[in-house]
Every structure is written in structure tokens, then in C-alpha cells.
# Entry
Amino acid sequence: MRRELQFLGLFLACMAGLGAILPGVHLLALNQHLFLALNVLALNFCLGLGGQASMASGAFCGFGAYAAVILLERWPGGTLLIVPAVALAAFLLAAMISKPLEKLGEGFLAMATLCLGLIFVNLVLSFTGFTGGSNGMMVQAAPSLPLLGPLKGDRANFLALLGLIGLSGYVFSAVRHSRLGRALMACKDDALAASSCGIDRLSARAVSFGLGGAVSAMAGMMLANSTGFISPGQFDLGLSLKTLLFLVIGGPGRLVRPLAAVVVLESLIAWFHSLGEATILVHGLILAAALIAGYWRETGLPRLLLR
Amino acid sequence: MLKKLVTILAAACLLAGNAFAADPILIGGIFAESGPTAEIGTATRLVAEMKLKEINDKGGVLGRPLKLIAYDTQSTPEVALRMTRQLVESDKVLALIGPTSTGEGMAVKKYTEEQKVPVIMTVGGDAIVAGGKYGPFEWTFKVPQRTNTAVEKIFDHLKGKGLTKVAVPSAKDPFGQDGLEAIKALAASKGITLVAEETIDSKGTDFSAEAFKLAMAKPQAVIVWTIGPAAAIAAKNFAALPGDKPVLVQSHGIAGPNFVKLAGEGAEGVIMPATKLMVADTLPAADPQKAVIDAFVKNYAAQGLQAKFPMNTHSGYAADALTLLEEGLKKAQKPDAAALRAALENLKGVVGVSGVFNPTPQDHNGLATDSLVMVQVKGGKFVEAK
Amino acid sequence: MFALYLAQAVNSGLALGAVYGLMALGFSLVYNSSRLINFAQGELLLLGGLVLYSLSQAFQLGPVTALAATAVFGFLLGHVLYASTLGVMLTAKPLRQLMLTVAASLIWQGAAILLWGKNPLKLDQFIALPAFRAGPVFLSANTVTSLALAVASVCVLSAFLGLTRTGRAIRAVSMNALAARLQGVNPVRAQALSFALSGVLAALAALSIGPQTMLRYDMGFGLGLKGFVAATLGGYSSLSRVFLGGILLGVVEAALTLAFSADLKETLTYALLVGLLVLAPAPQHRREKV
# Structure
């Protein structure tokens, strides 16, 4: 656990250093990458700890974003209450959802959570009164802490994101090296054996899925604050897919590697922002390359197509 | 030795030339060149560059050439915001044109209003200049007609034909939502009754069930409010309905060769409001826009754009954005953001491709119903609807 | 009045249902032989349709040639997909294989954008069958064509799987890969063949739906997902059940639109899938590593 936390600390220190020297707009870009990194960390709870590939991480981000924006609009001073409340609500919602889905195999769980994500987007689009529908919502009130004032501006968001990544990373490491973590590892390895050892699979996985949902929700809140505008299109399947793909590249279960993968690859992709029409193709190619490379590294030598 | 001399002379000429050339005025452009709305974005950028060249060839504005720095927004609000910040903070542009979709426009607007940067947007949604819960719009201007204007035009036409019962299938995206709200708001005052409404998926592949359901309510006209292929599919589905078919009306975002191609026979007889660009060859000589439109059409074809992006009702927006910018700068007399904004708010009678603009401090669009003309598809071509 | 609604639901539903059925068949073929959920199924449809479009622009295609071309290219595309995804990661964890199909779907979509552009393309109707009218039941020409193609495909596929040697080999692999291997069946060949067949089915689906709804670069995902819902509805077991699942899904969607609103239709369809997955017994998925 110490090693892991040391690496995490190193990563955060590098980011902090970067953040100190980068000018405004690049800091915004870094913030957007850090948001994705936080979401990848959230998914790591579901997948790395609990072994469940969830395609609903974008939906939980959206849930956090919309809930926070709507509530903060009504009660601008209530940040200290609202933010934890939304995170808790996301935790409970995710835990509740994971229970019936727990018995599904990997592929089917992915599809079921995919549908849940789609349902979320549809719901947001339908309840135009609350959510502004597809026109989206302008973020009027920023979350504000009692001593520090409102969280406005790139630097404030940057520090908040780093703080959240640090906190979530610590929780991730702590859970992994605890009894719960070992129980989850057993569930991942062989679900039947775990059950017969007396592990309550449903509850254990509910906790990991719930934590994933809560962290995603917090990431969503940060995105809303950082961009100033939310719309359903930002939290659709595309976000969930991107998150899952980066996690798989970095290695589910590892703490720092997926975060580093996000920052490095996203910055790389942003460099080529004049890709134009080839964007989707390049995304797919980079990700396929990373997947295949990871696989070859694991199996030793490149396998030719079996005849 | 001779070579050295020539090089020095050439360098000297270059330096001298630079000394005489004026500093360009920097204009930022954000267009969606990848992602779902990429055709509109790429075409918009090309038109902007075409118009920019035209302005520069005539000597630029205030004696200086205009330079366009354009970035791709990937049709995403976050990237649009990032690119805008880059343009404003790193590239230090004076003003911006674009983006091309409403979601991006809203994300960008929040920042540009705070930073006091004039932006002339080419988005279809009204939210950017609607005010109220959508935020202030002091520095934001819109080129395409407001949805209200288009709906008014449609209602006037229908009323004139005695068709007062309408049914509305609309998309769930910002454009569709705008349309439905405008239709509901204006219906009573124009004597039109909304007998049925349905939402359709702008990415959907078949709307025959929705068409049937709406037809059951016996409307005299059906107003479809969506953009892209969904509109063509809806037209085909309505054309396939048995029995008496209601008159099919499309939104002001549809007119163009793509619709006719995709809807095939379903497009015959469909009416829609469009900019005068669609009936360019039949405009009367007295029309104030005729000269500008003819020049635009000629230039569009000459630059090879007609082959890549056949002209549709949207084609002129980017050119008009630059026209407005040019007139604004001329009126302001100096390349200063605040002066430009004040000038833009008070322009009178700027003749553009999409209409004659008369913006006011309350109306940052400035186009009225006379900038639109009701057209009908006849034999695969757009003619003025009588 | 109710009869009219029903007739309309049936007509709209069957048109799309036939396509969903074909996609569902493709999914279930791949799933049964390799326990893999093929995320790129929709892109198989897209590319099949686009290739057909290009061919039809270059040559004049009659109904038979169009069918033949569709089958050939669908087969090739399916094979290419297999070679580039499962074929490369045969022994990887199922999740990684799934992710590779996701990456493949992005790559194919990206390639489609670069090669054919983003404008929707109209595919001609190669097989012109007349519309069908019997009392209140009205099936448009497109619907009849889609249905005819789909039903014919199911029949041919069933015959192939039931009567030919290769077909039986595929079925053996889907039942118990290890045992099949012991009997001399090459499971890799069988899996590749399943992919290729599902490519053919997807291309046929493109042939039937293209004239109606135009080919758009982003149409793959939606149709693929619906195909997955239909396959789950049918239970992944027998071909006819899976196909009927597709038809049922199409009709249910149309009925939901008529009864409630198009808004709710999407939400309800996905909720239906989640409900099915949660409540129904999960299909047997013991992974047999060979």
C-alpha cells in the first residue's frame, strides 16, 4: 500500500508542478484531462476492485453534475451539505443498481449498464422543465467553501481536482488492502468459491460499485463547475466508453497507471486537434494498439493468427 | 558574390515590404470540423475563408487585412470552450465567429460574456440571444434567423391558405425544442391550433408510427422540426400515408439539395421557409439582396465550393458574420472590442446573403420575416411557394 | 380504429423488426461460438451497406448481382473483423476481447467517415417487391422486401447449420468447444466462420434497410444495440427464436410509439433489456478455453 500511495503522491506532485507553470487555456485542458482521470479512477472501483465493467460511469457523472447544478441553484450557500449529499445519493443509487446486476457475466453487465446510461440521457432529455432538456443548463452558482470562497477559475478547479484524485486514490488503496478488498478479489477470481467461503458477494460488490458511482458523481460536479455549462450530450455513452477504454489500457486494478495513461494519451490526442475527419479513426487505432500491446506484453510474444 | 548580392537585395525588399504591410486584424473562428455536425462546420469555415479573401482583396478593413485563425471544436462544448480560450488568451483575437451548434455556443458564450469578447455566432438555436435564464447576451450576436421568425413566416403562409390545424413532430435536440416552444407560443396569436405533437429522434430511422399517430388527429398541415436526414425520412413516411395527406411543412434549416436527394419522391410539394439563396435565379431585380446573392453564388462556384458542398440555405451564414464584422468595424472606426460591440448593436440595413440585418440592443439578430421566403419543392427544385 | 392502429404498428414494426432480427442472428451466432459480445456488429452493417453503395455507383446492379455482392462482401468483412479482433486476442480475458471489438467499431466508423464522408447516402432498392395489402393490413414495398430477405436468410442459415458438415461443426463448437476439438473440429475456423456469416447477415440487413433510412456513419451503434436487445429477447438459443425476438422488438417499439410517445419508447426498450437481463436466467457462459 505504501508503494502505491508513494506513486500516487509522485503523480500528483508532477501534476501540481505542471499546473503551476501552465498558462490559462492549457490549464483548462489539463483540468479536462484530470476530470477524465478522476472518472477512470471511479471506474477502477467498479472494475479494478469489484471486477464489474460498468458502462454507466458517464451517467453517474451526469447525475452528479445535474444534481449539484440544480441544487446549488436553489441553495447557493449550501455547498458543504449539497456536495456530500449528492455523492452519498450516487453511492446509494449505484449500490442499489449493482445488486440485481451482480449475477450477470462481464459482457452482459456491460450491456446492462450501457442501457442504464442511455436511459439516464433519455430521462434528462424528457424532463425539460428540470434539466433544460437538450439545451442544457448554465451553471449559475459555483460550489463555495466557507473559508476559501467560491471555486471559480482554473487554478481553484485544478487544485480541487487534484485533491479529489488524491482522496479517491487513498480510499482505493485503503479498500484494496483491507478485508473488503480481499473479499472483492476473491469475488473477482472465482465468484462461487468466494460465496462458499462466506463472503457476501452482493454487499461487497455493492460497496465497490457504490464508491465508483460516488466518485463519478464528484467528477461530474467538477466538470460542471469547470466548464460552466452542462448538457446531456456530455454525459452520454461516449464518455463511459472513453473511461472504460483508458482504464483497460492502464490496467484495471492498478492505481496510478490508468491516471497517467489518461493524461498522456489525451494530451497527445489534443496535440493533433487538427485531425479533423480522422479523429474517430485515430482514437480507435490508438486504443486498439494499446490493447493489443498490453495483451502481447502479457502473453510474452506476438501470436500469429492461428491456422 | 552575385548570389550574395541578390540574397541581400531580396531580404531588403522583403523587409521593406513588411514595413509597408499593415498588421492584420485577428479574428478567431471556431467551427466543428469533426464530430456529428462536421459538414456544417467545414462548409462554414470554407465560406468564411472565401469571404475573408474577398474583403482583403478589396483592401481589408480600416486599411488593415483581416486574418482568420480557425480551430476545430470536434462538435463538443468542452473543446469549443478550450479553443475559444486559446483564441482569446493566446492568439489575442479581437472577435470570434462561430461556433456552429447550439450546445457549443452556450458553453462559449459563458466565457466570452465574462471576458467581453464580441462573438458573432452561426448557430441555429435561439438560446444564445434569448436572455433570461440563458444568461446575458451583450457581446453575443446571431446570424441565422430566429426560430420565432421562421415560425411566424410559416404561420402567415398557412393562415393565408386557410390551413389552421397543425400537428408537429419535433426532435428532442435544441433545434427541435426551440421550434416546438416557438410554435406553441405563437400559435394562438396567429389563429393556428396545435392538434397533436410528437417527439422524434433526430438519429431515428423510421417514423411511420409517429406519422400515423399524428395523421389520426386529422391536421391540415404537419410542421416537421428537425434537421438532417431525419427530416427527409419523416417526409418519406408522411408521403407514404394512405388517404388524404396533410400539407407537409419543414423548418428553415432544411432547404438544400440534400433533402431532395434523400427524400426522393417524398419531397415533392413540401414547403419550407428558406433564405433567398435558394431562389437566387428568380429574385426580382428590385430585391435589395439580389446583387449580394448573385455575387455570392458566383464566388461560391468559382472557389470550387459548389462541387464539395452544394449550396443550401445555411451556406451564407459565415459570409454574413464577416459582413457584419466588417460593417461593425467600419462604424466603430477602430479595432476595439467595446466599440465594435456598440457598433454591431446599432447597424442599419446591412445587406447580407441571408437577409437585411437591422440589429438593435435588444435584438442581436436583426432579421425579420421578410428575410425568409416560403419555397416549395417542385420537380426536385426549389421554387417560391405561392 | 384499434384495428388501424394495430395494422400500422405491424407494418412499421415489421420493417424494422426484420432488420433487428438479422442483426440479432448475427450477434447470437458470434456469441454462441465464442462467448463474445460483438460491439462492432453495427459497423458490419454500415460497411456492408457502404461497400454496396460504392459498387452500385460503379456498376449497374440487378437484384441477383446485388445479393451476391452483398453476400460476398459481408463474408469478407466478417472475416476481417474476426482476424483483427478475436483472432488476435484468442486467449485474452473476455473483457479485453470486448474492448477490442469496441476499438474495432471506432476504427471502422472512422474509416467509413474518411472514405465515404459524413453525408448520408441513399442506397437504391435493388430488389423491387410489390406492396402487400389484405384488408386493413398494409405492408409497404420496403417492408415486404426486408421481410422476404430476412426470412429467406433465416431459412438458408438454418439449413446450412443443420444439414451441412461445416454447419454442424459450428453448432458443435457452440455447444462444447473442447469436445468439438477432440472430434477434429478446428474451433478457430468455426469461430471465424461465425463471424463471416454474421457479416453476411449484417450486410443483408443493410441491403434491406438502406433504401428506407439512408446510410449514415453513426447508424451502426443504434442498430447493433437493438440487435443485441432482440437477441437477448430471443434467448440466444435457437435461430428462429432469436429472429422472432427481432420481429417482436420491432412491433413492440411501434406499438409503444403509437400508444404512448416516441419519447418513452427508447427508455422503455432499454428498461426492457435491463429487466430481461436481470430477471431471465442468464445464458450458459462457461468459457471453454481451447
